[in-house]
Amino acid sequence: MLIDDEPLALERLSDLLGRIEGVEIASTHQSAVDAIDHIPSVRPDLVLVDVEMPKVDGFDFVEALAKQEWLDAQSTPCICFVTAYPQFASAAFDTGALDFLCKPVRLGRLEKTVERARLALAQRDALDRLQELTTQLEALRESRAAPAQPSLWVHQRGQMVRVAIEDLDWVAAEGEYVRLHVGQQSFLLRSSISAFGDKLADQGFIRIHRSTIVSQSRIAALKSNRGGMRAVLDNGVTLAVGRKYRPALRSLQLEGILNEPSEAVTQSAP
């Protein structure tokens, strides 16, 4: 079952699902009210429902669905939210929602959703998922009302992964790509280091080398020695500072934005 108030969105989903073997579109609806009226007779395995719809939205639909008396372990559908607002994703993945797709929906990502639905139906846990999801609806509504946090979407192992800008430690150039370092993880993104630096300029990041950009909040100290200057991050990583970028870093230090020099160096990076 597909639910979206935009006809073009329904058309696109229908077209993509038609390319996945073994999938049948049970019904399409441009309003959640119409979908609720028809779902007892349709009884789909999977519902893809848009979050943002007038009057009755996707969360309201789930709330109404959970009150249906015909639901049981054999007939409860899996719920996948679809939206143009990726800031909902982090909250939705912590609920009983089967999945959370961001527009424009891609075929490869949709195929993973279908596989998840097949697994959930085989395990007969769709009813448990729905019950868990209904307890989280208020948190989801709050996440929709909250301002979107700046983030990036990167490819990893065939899927799109959201990386919050505030979680980004440093960025290194790798040929036609940049590598985003986030804690113990790293992600590749196709971009030049210069273009990426411009994008992050107003997000609290600073260029410290021709191939390195760093979050100012992650710089714990600056260390000078015979080999030049190195920036020490709060996780112990040290990064070389290019000669032309040293004055800007020293200015930040003088302004009190960076800490005083420290001898603590536990890990090095080129």
Describe the protein's architecture and organization:
This protein folds into two domains: 144 residues, Response regulator (Rossmann fold, 3-Layer(aba) Sandwich); 117 residues, LytTr DNA-binding domain (OB fold (Dihydrolipoamide Acetyltransferase, E2P)). Helix content is 32%, strand content 29%. It has nine helices and 16 strands. Strands 2-1-3-4-5 form a five-stranded parallel sheet, with helices on both faces. Strands 10-9-8-12-11 form a five-stranded antiparallel sheet, with helices on one face. Strands 13-14-15-16 form a four-stranded mixed sheet, with helices on one face.
Q: Which key phrases capture this entry?
A:
270 residues; 5-stranded parallel beta sheet; disordered C terminus; alpha/beta; Rossmann fold; OB fold (Dihydrolipoamide Acetyltransferase, E2P); 9 helices
List the helices and strands and how they pair.
Layout lengths: L1 E2 L3 H11 L10 E2 L2 H11 L3 E5 L7 H8 L12 E6 L5 H4 L6 E4 L4 H17 L2 H10 L1 H9 L5 E6 L2 E6 L5 E5 L2 E6 L2 E6 L2 H8 L4 E5 L2 E4 L3 E7 L2 E6 L3 E5 L4 H9 L12 E2 L2
Parallel strand pairs: 1-2, 1-3, 3-4, 4-5, 15-16
Antiparallel strand pairs: 6-7, 8-9, 8-12, 9-10, 11-12, 13-14, 14-15
Question: How large is the share of residues in beta strands?
Answer: 25-35%
| Span of the ends, CA to CA | 52 Å
The total tally of domains equals 2
Uncertain residue ranges? 90-94, 259-268
User: Per the principal axes of the C-alpha atoms, what is the gross shape?
Assistant: elongated
CATH architectural grouping of the largest domain: 3-Layer(aba) Sandwich
Query: Helix/strand/pairing class, anyone?
Result: alpha/beta
The count of β-strands is 16
CATH class of the largest domain: Alpha Beta
Strand order of the largest sheet: 2-1-3-4-5
| Annotation field: number of helices | 9
